[in-house]
Write a structure and sequence with these properties.
The chain has about 300 residues and is α/β, with parallel strands linked by helices. The protein is built from 10 helices and 8 strands. The chain has an 8-stranded mixed beta sheet with strand order 1-4-3-2-5-7-6-8, with helices on both faces. Helix 2 links the parallel strand 3 and strand 4. The longest helix has 29 residues. The structure holds uridine-5'-diphosphate (UDP) and magnesium ion.
Length: about 300
């Protein structure tokens, strides 16, 4: 990981953490829009771009901006580690008293930022969170599975994850530090943001289409990501394992009793295999139960 961040400067009011993966077209558009919104607010700020191992001119664009604007910093990964790793590295680098995390394609509109800023700087909230209330412009199949994911999560998860919640958050330093203390490997930020608690105000907006470039999330990548969310924030998969173990072990005990009875009654069948099946079922059932307990 390389960075141009000068750690010794005094902390700005706000840091914008922006993960970027092959976003050379979107970077200048994002930068211009962010400045348009933030400069009139008269706050000191920095932008921390995180280049998530892009293969295009993304890093060159970041360097260009950093050379002409001292408020721009960047972190560059040696390969693509994924948006979650990029968010973490960006939040670690950010020095602001308030940290905002947002996508780079303007799907997390900077125009919502002034309201979020007011919530954390004047209204006493620790965090401003955002959710999109529509999904127009998104492929229907993707919307369908996203909604299913949120409804499953609502039922089985310890962390309350709001439908349509974005990773677009504006957080006070205390909350950022709490998040950075969690050294989760398979990170699922939406869950972590909610899990750490803190007083949060929600803002809603309509879905916005990408400003430039195209989505970096394939269906398969999203599926794996949702799986890590479920595993990280719910014990239900472990309970299923324990439960299945109990069913298997109990079923095999019944099988053993039935086998012995049939043998005693002199039933004619091929002996040997029922005992084997029952033993295998019993041992695997106990193993599943132990895995659940260990988990
Ligand atoms: N992103 C990233 N690493 C990845 C995939 C995405 O840093 O491996 C960034 C991407 O550059 C963008 C944000 O994460 O700023 C959201 O990605 P994208 O817009 O492709 O996702 P979508 O909005 O389609 O869900
Ligand atoms: Mg996007």
């Amino acid at each position: 990981m390389s960075t141009n961040s000068p750690a010794e400067k005094s902390a700005p009011d706000a840091s914008f953490v922006v993960p970027c993966f092959n976003e050379q077209e979107a970077i200048p558009v994002f930068y211009a829009e962010l400045l348009r919104v933030v400069e009139p607010m008269k706050i000191s700020f920095e932008i921390v771009f995180v280049d998530d191992g892009s293969g295009d001119g993304t890093l060159a664009k970041m360097r260009e901006l950093a050379a002409k604007d001292s408020r721009v910093h960047y972190v560059s990964f040696s390969r693509n580690f994924g948006k979650e790793a990029a968010l973490l590295a960006g939040m670690e680098t950010a020095r602001g008293n308030v940290v905002a995390t947002m996508d780079e394609d303007l799907q997390d509109p900077p125009s919502v930022f002034p309201d979020c800023w007011r919530a954390v700087s004047e209204e006493g909230f620790d965090c401003a969170a955002t959710r999109r209330v529509t999904r127009k412009g998104e492929p229907p199949i993707r919307s369908f599975f996203s909604r299913k994911f949120y409804s499953v999560m609502a039922k089985i998860s310890d962390a309350h994850i709001v439908d349509g919640a974005r990773d677009y958050r504006v957080m006070r330093r205390e909350m950022v530090d709490a998040i950075l203390k969690l050294r989760e490997r398979n990170r699922f930020s939406k869950g972590i943001f909610s899990w750490v608690g803190f007083k949060t105000k929600w803002f809603e907006f309509e879905n916005v289409e990408r400003a430039a470039g195209e989505t970096k999330w394939s269906f398969g990548k999203l599926l794996l990501y949702s799986f890590s969310g479920i595993v990280a924030f719910s014990t239900v998969p472990l309970q299923i394992s324990s439960f299945a173990g109990i069913i298997f072990a109990a079923g095999s005990l019944i099988g053993i009793v039935v086998t012995i009875l049939l043998k005693l009654l002199g039933h004619s069948m091929v002996w040997g295999w029922p005992t084997l099946v029952c033993l295998i079922l019993f041992v695997s059932g106990v193993q599943l139960l132990c895995i659940g307990v260990l988990g």
